[in-house]
Structure formats: structure tokens, C-alpha cells
Fold this protein.
Amino acid sequence: MKKEEICEIFLQRVGKSLTTNEPLANHCHFQIGGPADFFFVATKEEEMLAVANLARECDLRFRVIGGGYNILFDDRGYRGLIIKNGLRKIQRVDSYRIMVHSGTELAELITFGQDFSLAGLEFLAGIPGTVGGAVYGNAGAFGHDIGECVESVRLLNTSGEIIEIETPHLQFSYRWSSLKNSQDIILSVKLKLKPGEKEALKARISEILKQRRNKLPSPTLPSGGSFFKNPLLPSGRKIAVAPLLEQVGAKGLRVGGAAVSQAHANFIYNLGGATAQDVLKLASSLKERIRRRFGLELEEEVIFLPEDA
């Protein structure tokens, strides 16, 4: 089926057309990535349902993305449909529970918690991205992760049904959830928070943001954030990966337009004109250095999306 025919089907059935040959570098914090065959921004839940179900009906490969902060696109782009999640809404369920649509920015969620004196999310301050992406990868910092606050998740499953999954079935662990083993789409998340005091929350958030500014490189530079997960020792103890990378001389290493930050050894940047292959080759060399020196296998936190995934 030709691109024009596919676009016409989506226009008739969804009410909005697909964009063709959209540069994915425009939707990725790395600023890297070739064109997607098709691209769509879903701003309403019914649009997400309609587009995803129609893509399956048309046997059109697709992936849903959030803010693009933890992803690296292929230089060749994506042979299929990229759906950008624009579902943004927060509403209170009761005194301490809130329902958050998956495309909501974490910064918006943090502000909401502060404004309504709801505690438990402060550790997420300064982490870029969306709620859906954070739950998918169980994002966290300062010894906490978002899975601690999740009560349930509403999903669009591969059969086109909306289901609600409670926390135990999500199997949260360090930077992982069972959602990584499924093709289900996160629509919204129910969070259970605690009572807090507005000024105390504001002070705590300010302190966390200050710590992140002092510890981490500028978030405005094109990167994917922390590139590798902190490795687990055979004993089960987790150790920080950045000091290990420093010990093998990672800072300042460069492949093409990609380089390791001089400020933090677990950040890889696009210095300008970097390709996905530059980033992957640099990451591979870092993994080899760690393997030889410490006998540890590093696992990427940044997700690479091949053109045919």
C-alpha cells in the first residue's frame, strides 16, 4: 500500500492525517534520527486508541514515544508509524490519589503535587520526560523510584482493549517494569501520594534541583541522560557506574560527533552532527573497557530504536 493510500485511510477513520517522512531528530533529545515513514501526535485518548488499533488493522509497524529524552533513533529513521504521546491531564481521584495521563510532563506533575500539598514525588524533580516513560522504565533518583507511588496503570493492550493493571503485576525493579516485555500502551497512571506541607515540599524540590544542577551536566545539551544503568554485583549490591567509567578514562572520549561528558562520565553528548552509529560505537567501547577492567556487563538505560523494530 502506498503512503498516500495509508494517509487517506487514517484521515477518513481518525479524522486527522499522518505526517510523512518526519525527521525523528526533531523528537529526540539527542537530536539524532532519520525520517519516520509516518508520524502522528495523539492529544486525546480516543485518538491514541483509534490510531493504534488502525495501525494494527493495517499491519503497520508502530511505536509510541513520549518526550524523547531516553531514546536514540536510528540514522535511517523508522519504517513504520511513530505515535507521539500528547495525552496531558491530571485529576484528583480522592484526597491522596491522582490520575495522570501518560503524556503529562514530569515537571507538570511535580508542580501539581506541590500546589495541592501532596508528597511523595519530590525525588523526580529535574528528571525530564513524561509520566508514561517514567513508569515504563521505573524512573527514579535519590534512592526512590516512581513505582513506589503507582497504584495502577490503564493500558491499551494488543487486542485493542483498555485494561487496568495493579502494581504487583507491573513487577517494578531498578529501571524496569513488566511493561518492557509487552506492546501495551500506557494511557494513564493512578498514583497514591501522602499529605505534605506546601512550603516544605517547595523547599525540598528546590534542594533536589540544586543537587542535580551541581552533580549533573546541563540538561539543555543534546544527550539521552544517564546512558548506562548502575550495575549489580553478584552479591546483589548496586554500584554507581559513573566512578567506574571515570576509572577507565571515559571522560572526553569521542567517536565522530559523539563524546562522553567531561562533567559526568555516564553522559554521552551530541557535539554536533553526531550519528546514532557514533553513539553506539562509543557506548560499545565503554562497555568493553568496563568488561576488561572490572568483569562487569553494562546495560544501557537509553533505548535504541532500530528502523525496523
The chain has a mean pLDDT of 97. The first strand starts at residue 19 and ends at 23.
